[in-house]
Amino acid sequence: MLDIYFDDRTEKVTEDTIKLIQDVLDHAAKMENLSGNPEVSVTFMSDEEIRQVNAEYRGKDKATDVISFALEEMSEGEVAIVQEEDMPVVLGDIIISVETAKRQAVEYGHDEKREIGFLALHGFLHLLGYDHMTEEDEKKMFGRQKDILSSFGLER
Prior knowledge:
The protein is built from five helices and four strands; from the N terminus they run E-H-E-H-E-E-H-H-H. By secondary structure, the protein is of the alpha/beta class. It has helices at residues 15-31, 47-58, 98-108, 112-127, 135-152; strands at 3-8, 38-45, 66-70, 89-97. It is 47% helix and 18% strand. The radius of gyration is 15 Å and the shape is globular. Helix 1 runs parallel beside helix 4 and helix 3 (98-108) packs across helix 4. It has one domain: Collagenase (Catalytic Domain), CATH 3.40.390.30. Strand 1, helix 1 and strand 2 (38-45) form a beta-alpha-beta unit.
């Protein structure tokens, strides 16, 4: 089972939504055949908070719906983390803007809980190495997203 650490800085996320995210990400971890003791953090923020993170780390001074920081990705000058047996595999962090999720839920015609579940899965797939920078990568990632959401029963 996937260990998820939640941090709701907005104090607006319901226990039902947190349970949905836990269940969706557990389902995704099984479908992706994750082994070991994987863990991830999910932080809920306001548009202003995620805008600051986006500006600082991605150079984009605007709010966004979800940002992921994969721990396994290495940049120049970093030292690889050596995984010891029985230690958890820390995949990284997922940050979700609750305000943007609420607006997008209205725009797409589904409830906020479904939108946050979708964003959590999208961020989780980024942590696993999926991306959508090219058309080919986008097809692969979005196809996997759809497969996981469909098999879980969380469709639009």
